[in-house]
Amino acid sequence: MYDVHSKHAEDFINHEEILETLAYADENKHNAALIDTLIEKAKKRKGLSHREASVLLACDLKEKNEEIFRLAEQIKKDFYGNRIVMFAPLYLSNYCINGCTYCPYHAKNKHIARKQLTQEEIRREVIALQDMGHKRLALEAGEDPIRNTMDYYLDSINTIYSIKHKNGAIRRVNINIAATTVDNYRLLKEAGIGTYILFQETYHKESYLKLHPTGPKHDYAYHTEAMDRAMEGGIDDVGIGVLFGLDKYRYEFAGLLMHAEHLEAAFGVGPHTISVPRLRDADDIDSSSFKNGIDDDTFAKLVACIRIAVPYTGMIISTRESQKTRERVLHLGISQISGGSRTSVGGYCEPEPDTEKSEQFDVVDTRTLDEVVCWLMEMGYIPSFCTACYREGRTGDRFMSLCKSGQIQNCCHPNALMTLKEYLMDYASPKTKAIGDALIEKEVFNVPNEKARSVVLENLRLIEQDNRRDFRF
Ligand code: SAM
To answer: In this structure, are residues 98 and 107 in contact, taking their beta carbons and an 8 Å threshold?
Structure first.
């Protein structure tokens, strides 16, 4: 039975409830009066339930859809301004004992090169990432309890935080690794991770079991209840997501929102981020053999509806998407993007030889970080390298309450400008620096109060003189 508070996966992601939600959405997809009421409710910026948001997702009335897109854009502006947080993935190991049918790391793939970075290799990769300008990483790994142990992850996190190279430092390490125990989540928290990320892949249990035929990941309940255990272990920033293309997107959308509702109901804090990856070709994976792929129009609608349904939850898009698609959805709700990414184990420091490919999927947006930063600024966005919330302890419900009251803007906007200035001084090409300096000069006048503005101006001046105080709001 559907129960948002239950600890059991099949209660809080209840199949019958999702089917009823989809039926309700279908019945009402042309119900203009109801859709108007839902849009009005969403304008209050307190979000929508999975049922309500599913009606908006199903709606195919042209005029109403235009309103939905406009509202998503407005909510995105109100909560996130024009800032986009930058990050890069770092693949630690592609050893994996699971049998996921969509992922080239599956255990039966004897063709892909298997690699696990040593601590020395991690050092070299991190220095290469720091030299690009990155401050925030998402660690990635396959599931192999013998090779990819918790001790290995903890050592890797320590190594990464300890590397100080020129003006570089990784200041937030997020981690995307297999579902684990409360005790292990506690260890990850103590090691100082930012967000624990785990994609559900699909919320549809029957499909899930077929798509994960072997290995520990086959256990649907253990996987689906992972975020509950992470929260019990003290991790208050968790990132959820679905791999779109595996099952029907409207089912997944309802599941994602029910998961968010469950975390909010059970722990008082919803997910910190939602990722929206789409299935891609990879080593021995042909994405066209999966029949639930979604086109770009549907993808844009999905992003807009997530933005409206959970305004306080950051939304992440990776280099699985092209420049064009990223451009299309950024203003509809994306708050974080990766740039200059490699999905191979190693590959930042030196490109992998063709004979030793270890990539998880084909990167579509292959531009450098400098090119991505420049492109964002040319569109009027402020690429942010800020990690202050995490470092100041503004995580979980403390972050959410600042977000809900709108006060978070007072920190984010100035911090984005100062961290961008540091990036421009340390890593940008002359063209990017010129565009960035002009943008900062303009944007500094949008810092909310005069006192804060003068502090920012003073810090920008110090950064320009390379006399940094590492000051953040
Ligand atoms: N081992 C971790 C786990 O058990 O969830 C996963 C981390 S994996 C390195 C990161 C994510 O990549 C997966 O959760 C999956 O959604 C995504 N992924 C796997 N195969 C993919 C493909 N062919 N195209 C796009 N994304 C893929």
So the answer is: yes
Please give the number of the atom of ligand 1 that sits closest to the Cα of 94: 9
Say if ligand 1 is within 6 A of residue 243 CB: yes
**Protein residue with its CA nearest to atom 25 in ligand 1:** 279
State which of 102, 214, 342 you would mutate to test the pocket of ligand 1, scoring each by most atoms of that ligand within 8 A of its C-beta: 102
Determine if ligand 1 sits within 6 Å of the CB of residue 345: no
Instruction: Find the 465 Cα to ligand 1 centroid distance in Å.
Output: 43
Q: In tens digits, what is the pLDDT along the chain, a chain of 473 residues?
A: 999 999 999 999 999 999 999 999 999 999 999 999 999 999 999 999 999 999 999 999 999 999 999 999 999 999 899 999 999 999 999 999 999 999 999 999 999 999 999 999 999 999 999 999 999 999 999 999 999 999 999 999 999 999 999 999 999 999 999 999 999 999 999 999 999 999 999 999 999 999 999 999 999 999 999 999 999 999 999 999 999 999 999 999 999 999 999 999 999 999 999 999 999 999 999 999 999 999 999 999 999 999 999 999 999 999 999 999 999 999 999 999 999 999 999 999 998 988 889 999 889 999 999 999 999 999 999 999 999 887 788 888 888 887 777 777 788 999 999 999 999 999 999 999 999 999 999 999 999 888 889 999 999 999 999 888 888 89
363 in ligand 1 pocket by Cβ < 6 Å?
no
Q: Which atom of ligand 1 is nearest to the CA of 241?
A: 16
Q: Is the CB of 199 under 6 A from ligand 1?
A: yes
- Beta-sheet pairing, 273-275 with 238-241: parallel
Give the atom of ligand 1 at the shortest distance from the alpha carbon of 198: 5
Query: CA-to-CA distance for 106 and 109, rounded, in angstroms?
Result: 6
State the first-to-last Cα distance of the chain, in angstroms, to the nearest integer: 46
- Quick check: CB of 282 below 6 Å from ligand 1? yes
Q: Which residues contact 318 (CB under 8 A, 6 or more apart)?
A: 89, 275, 277, 337, 338, 341
Cα radius of gyration rounded to whole Å, the chain? 21
Q: What is the pTM of this model?
A: 0.97
DSSP for 25-55? HHHHTT-HHHHHHHHHHHHTTS---HHHHHH
CA-to-CA distance for 402 and 406, rounded, in angstroms? 6
What ligand 1 atom has the least distance to the C-alpha of 143? Answer: 1
Q: Are 95 and 147 in contact (CB under 8 A)?
A: yes
Which H or E run contains 189? helix 182-190
> How far is the centre of ligand 1, averaged over its atoms, from the C-alpha of 350 (Å)?
23
